[in-house]
């Protein structure tokens, strides 16, 4: 389907106009194999196999969507932009529907300016959707996503999560917004990163079926009103305040999250405790429990 045949001002400020064809096309696996084998030898950029494999995974999982990012061919038919998408689609054995630009001048100075911008992040997407407290929400979303899949809010190795997958996770769990609000409402940032506090509150809420108990725990943790010695919320506050006053050997954010959940697990059981510790080298990240658990 031909979308447009457009004349643009000359390249690099020249007066000679640039005429290109812009179409919307669906490439079959066979067509892409031919393009990659016969028309990709002039591409200035080497194939990044790791990125192609990531795209392949997104395609197979349904996370790769049409977004008007074009595939480009120069005036001689050489592929200039799109080799990673085509390589991934071939590996996934899936057709690729894209906007195609043909007739780009065959000069290195022009095509090397492609893809120099910053990729859109989850933060950008949430701002665009009108979300509030975006910095905190991003932390809570990412940590909650990892926790649900590996019982740890931080993966063992760096893992890039597709933005659309995170947006879908938020749509499936809208109550995480309230967890961000609760963590912010009780002003815990001086002891525990607010986004991490929101993750903990969300995990607690999920564990106890949406009751108000996690919010009461955070209230006790923040205000320390009427708490007796041995109360887990009081012990957690003291532990994290001591950590804040240290100049060296401070607790990692993961350790603070683990201590928070261990304190919650004791609090929801109505236990009195004298120590609150977590040994990351020998202990797994604690599993958050709900009320009524013995």
In the sheet with the most strands, the strands line up as 1-2-5-3-4
Order of helices and strands: EEHHEEHEHHHHHHHHH
The number of domains: 2
The helix tally amounts to 12
Low-confidence stretches: 1-12
For the record, give the distance between the C-alpha atoms at the N and C termini, rounded to a whole number: 65 Å
Average pLDDT number: 85
Structural class: alpha+beta
How much helix, percentage-wise, in residues?
40-55%
What attributes does this structure have?
2 domains; single chain; alpha+beta; Conserved hypothetical protein from pyrococcus furiosus pfu- 392566-001, ParB domain; elongated; five-stranded mixed β-sheet
Describe this structure in words.
With 294 residues, this protein is α+β, with helices and mostly antiparallel strands. The protein has two domains: 2-111, Alpha-Beta Complex (Conserved hypothetical protein from pyrococcus furiosus pfu- 392566-001, ParB domain); 122-268, no CATH class. 46% of the residues lie in helices and 11% in strands. It contains twelve helices and five strands. Strands 1-2-5-3-4 form a five-stranded mixed beta sheet. Strand 3 (71-74) and strand 4 (79-81) form a beta hairpin. Helix 6 (134-150) packs across helix 9 (194-207) and helix 9 (194-207) packs parallel to helix 12 (253-268). It starts with a strand and ends in a 26-residue tail after the last helix. The model is unreliable at 1-12 (pLDDT under 50).
Q: Could you give a quick summary of the protein structure above?
A:
This protein is an alpha+beta fold. 46% of the residues lie in helices and 11% in strands.
